[in-house]
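Review session, final week

We close the course with one last complete record, chosen because it touches almost every idea we covered. It is Uroporphyrin-III methyltransferase, a protein from Flavobacterium aquatile LMG 4008 = ATCC 11947 with 117 residues. Go through it on your own first, then we will talk.
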Amino acid sequence: MSNITLKRIYDHKKPDDTYRILVDRVWPRGLKKSEIFLDEWNREVTPSVKIRKWFDHQESRFKEFTKLYTEELKQKEEELNRLRSIAKTKKVTLLYGAKDPQINHAVILRDVLTKLI
């Protein structure tokens, strides 16, 4: 059982019993920082602008996007280990802004993090 869950930031603005991390490179449109509860905003583990724009949330590109993003994450091992350490002692929620709950980078990030917890 994983200590890492995913939630869409627009649907889950209120604090809960988890360590809440926004994992989007850009701030979610239409939300004020005072409207949501976060423990941190982590842009370091988000996809690069290049692959994020190329992906454009197109389902047909998700498989290739997964490969590209996973390769980028290999360069972020120190930060990934920090997040894994948090998840070993607390429940963690990765918050994202994408509309599709299955086709987004947070799904990939969670999978990468949980494989090595």
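Two points worth writing down before the exam:
Strands lie at 4-8, 19-22, 40-41, 92-96.
Helices lie at 49-55, 62-73, 77-89, 105-115.
Good luck, everyone.
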